[in-house]
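Section 5: illustrative case.
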């Protein structure tokens, strides 16, 4: 174990090729120069992540992994990452899956806006590189299981997905840790979708009850490329997903769907930014979530259409159920439109269960608890049926309703 600091960053740099090493070194400079984010900043409005880095250290080897993650996808292609170390990786069918420490290509260092974004750059020493060759279309999804196992530790895994021209690849990312252990995870997911490529990414977030996770996703789309993200947010004491999608190719498209359920003292924090910088691009964000107990959810969405983004069509929707007096949901959709020939819109809602629906269901003979349960089930169903991989729908519906049963007793 060694603390978060210069020695840890030096070790991270030593794990990589020269290109990766340069990225770590740039990240360390940013990490030391930037302050911890604060609630007064727009990107951190409404939240205090409550992270004291002195409480965490890095492992020098992976801990003992738990049993295999339970999900409906048979694993033929994929990788397993434990405490930031990739311990298994297997590809095939036109897709290479390799540990990031063995990869030559690491991409350009991104600009970093805050200390936690720089954290991954400064301390990532491993992860997974998924490369879909041009024209590849594997029948199976690539399943990446990211696990944190040890209390008091931090990790910064990175997943890079590079989809060649006209390739079609599905990736399932499972993120998990045990309940009751203080753990910090700062993952980063990068998607580079080449011309005509399609990437479908399903994220199942099952962090433990005392895990603080600050995830950053960055997507770049070429001409006629499509990226689909479906995220189910279930766990974590504090879990953040900050997504930036740059639609740089004419005709590119981004589709985002999400479902989340917070209870206890959870904070689920979503910051989604779509930048349309080419002609004829489209994006659609659709998120639904519920909060109960003393939990909190935050959604900030921004659609920015550059002057080059003529003929863009973009929309964002966020709806929230507030199931207790102590819970809060903040929803802030925004638009910045510099082009003059676009279709763009947004909608957001925050409120309790609907009294009219409850009255209607009770008038048909249902007791109030059953009527409310039916409302919650129907609320999530609209989002879950939009997940591109419908094999996850039964599992996620059960998880959401189990959380609901837990809060109503």
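Designed sequence:
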């Amino acid at each position: 174990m060694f603390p978060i600091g210069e020695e840890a960053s030096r070790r991270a740099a030593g794990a990589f090729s020269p290109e990766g090493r340069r990225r770590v070194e740039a990240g360390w400079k940013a990490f030391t120069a930037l302050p911890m984010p604060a609630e007064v900043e727009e990107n951190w409005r409404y939240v205090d992540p409550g992270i004291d880095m002195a409480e965490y250290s890095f492992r020098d080897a992976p801990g003992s992994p738990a049993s295999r993650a339970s999900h409906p996808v048979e694993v033929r292609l994929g990788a397993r990452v434990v405490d930031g170390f990739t311990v298994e990786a297997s590809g095939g069918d036109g897709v290479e899956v390799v540990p990031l420490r063995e990869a030559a290509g690491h991409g350009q260092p991104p600009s970093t806006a805050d200390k936690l974004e720089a954290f991954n750059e400064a301390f990532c020493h491993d992860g997974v590189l998924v490369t879909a060759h041009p024209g590849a279309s594997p029948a199976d999804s690539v399943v990446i299981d990211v696990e944190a196992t040890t209390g008091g530790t931090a990790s910064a895994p990175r997943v890079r997905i590079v989809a060649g021209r006209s390739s079609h690849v599905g990736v399932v990312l499972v993120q998990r840790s045990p309940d009751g252990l203080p753990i910090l995870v700062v993952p980063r997911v990068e998607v580079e979708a080449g011309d005509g490529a399609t990437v479908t990414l399903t994220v199942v977030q099952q962090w433990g009850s005392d895990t603080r996770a600050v995830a950053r996703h960055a997507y770049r789309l070429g001409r006629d490329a499509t990226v689909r993200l479906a995220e189910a947010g279930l766990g974590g004491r504090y879990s953040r997903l900050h997504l930036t999608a740059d639609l740089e190719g004419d005709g590119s498209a981004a589709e985002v769907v999400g479902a989340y359920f917070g209870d206890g003292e959870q904070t689920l924090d979503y910051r989604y930014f779509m930048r349309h910088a080419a002609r004829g691009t489209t994006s659609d964000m659709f998120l639904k979530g519920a909060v109960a107990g003393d939990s909190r959810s935050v959604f900030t969405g921004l659609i920015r259409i550059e002057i080059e983004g003529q003929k863009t069509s973009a929309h964002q929707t966020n709806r929230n159920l507030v199931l207790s007096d102590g819970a809060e949901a903040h929803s802030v959709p925004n638009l910045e439109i510099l082009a003059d020939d676009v279709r763009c819109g947004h909608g957001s809602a925050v409120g309790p269960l609907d009294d009219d629906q409850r009255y209607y269901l009770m008038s048909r003979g249902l007791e109030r608890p059953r009527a409310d349960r039916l409302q919650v089930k129907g609320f999530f169903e609209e989002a879950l049926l939009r997940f591109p991989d419908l094999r996850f729908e039964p599992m996620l519906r059960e998880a959401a309703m189990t959380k609901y049963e837990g809060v109503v007793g």
